[in-house]
C-alpha cells in the first residue's frame, strides 16, 4: 500500500509533538547525568535544569492536550480495530504519564524546600510543603514512572515504525513535516 496523503496533523500539533519529544530527550539526558538528589544536594547545575525542563514539559503537554481535544484528527480506515485500541491506550497513557510524572517531580522538589520555575524564570506555587512525607514519596513514584514512561515511548516508536515500514500506510507520516499536510 503506497503512502498517500491522509487527514493529518496541522503544523501546531506537529510542532508540539516534536518539541515535547525533544524536551523529553533532553530531560532523560539531564536525569542520567545529574547527580543523585540526596540529603545534601543543592538546587543548582543539572538539578536546577532538570526542574526547569520538567516545568517546560508540563507547560507544553498541557497545551498539546488542549490542542488535541480542540483539533481532533480522524483515525485512518486502514487501521485494524486492535491497532486503534492500542494506539488510543498508548497515546493517552503517554499524556497521563507525562502529566503525572511532572506533577510528582514538582511536589518532590517542593518537599525539599526548593522552588520550581517555569523556563527558569517564572516561580510556580508549591504543590507540597517542605519536608512533607507525601512529597518525598512523590519523588520515589516519579523515579519509578521514569521507566514506565520510557516503555510507553518505546511502544509509540515501535508503532510508528510498524506503520511506516511494515504496513506502509500514512499513519506515521501524518506527523512528519514533509507529509504534505502542513
What is the terminal separation in angstroms? 22 Å
Helical proportion, percent range: 55-70%
Report the sheet-strand fraction: under 5%
Determine Rg (CA atoms, Å). 18 Å
The CATH architecture term is Up-down Bundle
H/E element order: HHHEEH
Q: The biggest beta sheet, please?
A: 2 strands, antiparallel
Structural class of the secondary elements? mainly alpha
In CATH, the topology is named Fumarate Reductase Cytochrome B subunit
Description:
By secondary structure, the protein is an all-alpha fold. The protein has one domain (11-175): Fumarate Reductase Cytochrome B subunit. It has 4 helices and 2 strands; from the N terminus they run H-H-H-E-E-H. It has helices spanning 11-33, 46-70, 81-111, 133-167, and strands at 117-118, 122-123. A two-stranded antiparallel ribbon has the order 1-2. A hairpin with a 3-residue loop joins strand 1 and strand 2 (122-123). The longest helix is centred in the last third of the chain and has 35 residues, at 133-167. It starts with 10 loop residues before the first helix and ends in a 15-residue tail after the last helix. Mean pLDDT is 92; it is low at 1-6.
In short:
By secondary structure, the chain is an all-alpha fold.
Features:
182 residues; Fumarate Reductase Cytochrome B subunit
Show the helix and strand layout.
Blueprint: H1 11-33, H2 46-70, H3 81-111, E1 117-118, E2 122-123, H4 133-167
Antiparallel strand pairs: 1-2
Helix pairs in contact: 1-2, 2-3, 3-4
Amino acid at each position: 500500500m503506497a503512502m498517500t496523503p491522509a487527514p493529518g496533523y496541522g503544523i501546531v500539533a506537529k510542532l508540539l509533538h516534536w518539541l515535547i519529544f525533544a524536551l523529553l530527550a533532553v530531560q532523560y539526558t539531564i536525569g542520567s547525568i545529574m547527580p543523585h538528589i540526596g540529603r545534601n544536594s543543592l538546587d543548582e547545575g543539572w538539578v536546577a535544569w532538570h526542574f526547569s525542563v520538567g516545568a517546560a514539559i508540563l507547560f507544553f503537554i498541557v497545551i498539546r492536550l488542549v490542542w488535541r481535544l480542540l483539533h481532533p484528527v480522524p483515525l485512518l480506515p486502514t487501521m485494524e480495530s486492535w491497532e486503534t485500541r492500542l494506539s488510543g491506550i498508548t497515546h493517552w497513557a503517554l499524556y497521563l504519564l507525562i502529566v503525572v510524572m511532572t506533577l510528582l517531580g514538582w511536589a518532590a522538589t517542593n518537599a525539599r524546600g526548593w522552588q520550581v520555575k517555569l523556563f527558569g524564570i517564572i516561580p510556580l506555587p508549591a504543590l507540597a510543603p517542605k519536608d512533607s512525607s507525601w512529597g518525598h514519596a512523590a519523588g520515589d513514584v516519579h523515579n519509578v514512572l521514569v521507566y514506565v514512561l520510557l516503555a510507553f515511548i518505546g511502544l509509540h516508536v515501535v508503532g510508528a515504525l510498524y506503520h511506516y515500514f511494515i504496513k506502509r500506510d500514512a499513519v506515521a507520516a501524518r506527523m512528519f513535516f514533509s507529509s504534505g499536510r502542513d
